[in-house]
Amino acid sequence: MKVFMTGGTGFVGTYLSQELAQKGHDITILTRQKEPAAAAGSRSRFVTGDPKQEGPWMAEVARHDWIINLAGSSIFSKWTKESKQMLRDSRVLTTRNLVAALAAGELDRPPGVVGILDVSDRTHRAGRSIFAFRPPEEV
After folding, report:
1. Which end of the chain, N or C, is surrounded by fewer C-beta atoms within 10 Å?
2. Average pLDDT per run of 10 along the chain, which is 139 residues long?
3. Which range marks the domain in which residue 96 is found?
């Protein structure tokens, strides 16, 4: 299965992309970094772009079976007016651009979409993963 992921170099995304690659899925990770430090394995590749801004990266989205949106500014900061706007923009603009990318692409069938807005250290306890990934049912 082909998976397009935003936030794939973050706390959850790094772990999830490695898990999916180990299970044989092909992962495309959108990253703002020119040369990401985190490698998800041989079944993954990186596309450079900012999910809050339209760009060439959007042409990649519709070529995938699943879209996983983990992008978003950290919630662990002082909640000022500016930081709240940044939090909102990082989620709303990213989602808006992903939807626009899907709408512009030629799809045989709509991909599965997963969006996770905020994650804390409670998502991974005692070395056990909370992630369960099942392929979409055939249409």
Report:
1. C
2. 89 86 91 70 84 94 88 80 85 88 76 54 41 43
3. 2-119
The CA distance from 68 to 5, in Å, is 5
CATH code of the domain in which 98 resides: 3.40.50.720
Closest C-alpha to 59, from 106, 111, 2: 106
Read off the tokens for 125.
């306890």
| 108, part of any domain | yes
Give DSSP secondary structure letters for the chain. Answer: -EEEEESTTSHHHHHHHHHHHHTT-EEEEEESSSS-S----TTEEEEE--TTS--TTHHHHTT-SEEEE-----S-S---HHHHHHHHHHHHHHHHHHHHHHHHS--SSPPEEEE-----GGGSBTTB------PPPP-
pLDDT for position 6: 92
